[in-house]
Amino acid sequence: MSEIVKNLRRRWKLVIGLLVALFLFSVSVGIAGAYVLAFTSTEEFCTSCHEMSYNLAEYKGTIHDTNRTGVRAICTSCHVPHEPGPLVLAKLKATKDLFYTYVIPSIDTKEKFEAKRSVMAHRVWKDMMESDSHQCRSCHRADKMNLELQSPGAQKRHAKGKADGKTCIECHYGIAHNEPEGPSPTELFGKTALKAE
Ligand code: HEC
Ligand code: HEC
Ligand code: HEC
Ligand code: HEC
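A: This is the predicted complex of the input protein with heme C.
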């Protein structure tokens, strides 16, 4: 052990050089990573593939694309987690979509997209049921909603929804895209997801 320390002492210039190199390397990896995260979080990045798969056309003109105040929810606002850990995991998981774009294209025609729509929608619903609609809540804070300013219908449903322990996606699905055919999120996941917590 003391031999190693002695050796290192003799080569202190090399040691410092290595430490500086390691530091610079980590900084560049960090910066490159930040660029990748930022680039893959833009609307342009998502729609470079999803324009073809018709999502963009359906989303255009909805309340989250254009509204009175110009505050928007873009693809990533609703589809990517907001904490750093889950965010990176979600990005890694999404690399499967490279496979379904370039190796076995799964949604490159309207027919294929429609055939796969409910499978994909159910993945999104499952995620939102399990996270108590985390993505929606990153903008819509239930505790900051002024119920008095809401329509009477919304007031009533929100009070009842809260009492019944329901989450946003159980009532507000099909808000950014055409609604998929078949069962609703509650019918699919209602019994397991939220209540399990
Ligand atoms: C390289 C092309 C490509 C890019 C870029 C891309 N996607 Fe996808 N995406 C796909 C493909 C292909 C599928 C279908 C996957 C399948 O068949 O299982 C898909 C599926 C989805 C689904 C359905 C749920 C699921 O996991 O299958 C969502 C939601 C989605 N993408 C959102 C996004 C968002 C948000 C972005 C931007 C951050 C994005 N995509 C960027 C190709 C892409
Ligand atoms: C990036 C922030 C953001 C996210 C994420 C988001 N929203 Fe919104 N939402 C808005 C804004 C902004 C409006 C428009 C408010 C206005 O101008 O009236 C809106 C409007 C709405 C409305 C009102 C529709 C109407 O016709 O008045 C509903 C319902 C809604 N959002 C539900 C959801 C649900 C459910 C989710 C999750 C799937 C979600 N939002 C995710 C920002 C967001
Ligand atoms: C039990 C069903 C239910 C649940 C759960 C629910 N909503 Fe609603 N929400 C409604 C109904 C019904 C309306 C009224 C729709 C209308 O008037 O067109 C509404 C209206 C809204 C509006 C528009 C308010 C207005 O006055 O224009 C927003 C925004 C909204 N909901 C967001 C959310 C968010 C975010 C969550 C989760 C924290 C949520 N809702 C949970 C049923 C629900
Ligand atoms: C306001 C939140 C919101 C925004 C913004 C949004 N999505 Fe979605 N997306 C959802 C929800 C919720 C679902 C689950 C199905 C449903 O309820 O419509 C979904 C489903 C999907 C699916 C599965 C197929 C389908 O149609 O159900 C894909 C792919 C997808 N979104 C991609 C995108 C892309 C690309 C964008 C940006 C152009 C985008 N989404 C913007 C909330 C959103």
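The pocket of heme C (ligand 1) is lined by residues 40, 45-46, 48-50, 75-76, 79, 97-98, 100-101, 106-107, 116, 120, 123-124 (CB under 6 Å). The mean pLDDT is 90.
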